[in-house]
Design goal:
This protein has a seven-stranded parallel sheet with strand order 3-2-1-4-5-6-11, sandwiched between helices. Strands 7-10 form a two-stranded parallel sheet. A two-stranded parallel ribbon has the order 8-13. It has about 325 residues and is of the alpha/beta class. The longest helix has 21 residues, at about 100-120. β2 (about 30-35), α2 and β3 (about 55-60) form a beta-alpha-beta unit. The radius of gyration is 19 Å and the shape is globular. It has a single domain, classed as NAD(P)-binding Rossmann-like Domain (Rossmann fold, 3-Layer(aba) Sandwich), CATH 3.40.50.720. It is about 45% helix and about 15% strand.
Amino acid sequence: MADKILITGSSGFIGMHLSKSLLEDGISILGVDNMNDYYDPKLKYDRLKQLQKFKNFDFVQADISDKEVVDKVFRNFKPDRVVNLAAQAGVRYSLEDPGAYIQANIVGFMNILEACRHNKVDGLIYASSSSVYGGNKKIPFSIDDSVDKPISIYAASKKSNELMAYSYSHLYGLNTTGLRFFTVYGPWGRPDMAMFIFSEKILNGEPIPVFNHGKMQRDFTFIDDIIEGTKSSIKLNYGCEVFNLGNNKSEDLMDMIALIEEGLNKKARFNFLDIQPGDVEKSFADIDYSNKMLDFRPKTSIKDGIPKFLDWYKTYFNI
């Protein structure tokens, strides 16, 4: 494993957990995050506080779409490896503000690639997304499947990242590993994700929005499993790879809701809606290749993972 790792999006959900795990391993981490208000920044600052307890952690508030700032951060810190998790997230928001995705996910990612190239970084690990599979009908989703028909700008931006990384590996010998994350959840999760929204609304007695009239399936992947797979990617530092990080199980949305109801000891009220543009009915990760190359073996079922999320949620919001 590298001695010095730069992590962008370090105050994000995955970024915080990854940073904390690497800090506990004694690695020097420089976190970079713009702390934007896509969701309540208080949660980001509270995550940051968890990391600032470590002596081997430093933080720079910066936006990766600002090339000059990115170049300065790289020159000063001289990272061995870089993990790029900074991105404008969310499929649905990409319908409202597509420009935000081009700026953060394409311009920002280009700045990271260029900084890696010019600063002799020996490996870049970056977040892709299961959304690149678009409306693929073949289940489970394999990294060998065609991903040429993204059905949201968010998905298109993530597919673009994979193509850009491939070019940099080919042209400049930069080691790159893309990770297609599948519906990540757990403590310190994102408030724009279904589990968070449903928990809040159930507790407030408000109806929860259930798209496609509940006929949705997701490969829910617990944060600890995602971190194991990401750390393995950092350590192995392949020349040019893309991996699925998912739980290898597609769960019914209604089953997930039932587990939240059980954990909160409160029944949900439902507002059944049509499927939204950009949404997919089902996600399911084929992880055979990740298993072989990363020794990736997710351990956490939603029966175990959702109670862990709810325990954190109730503690964080003093419920």
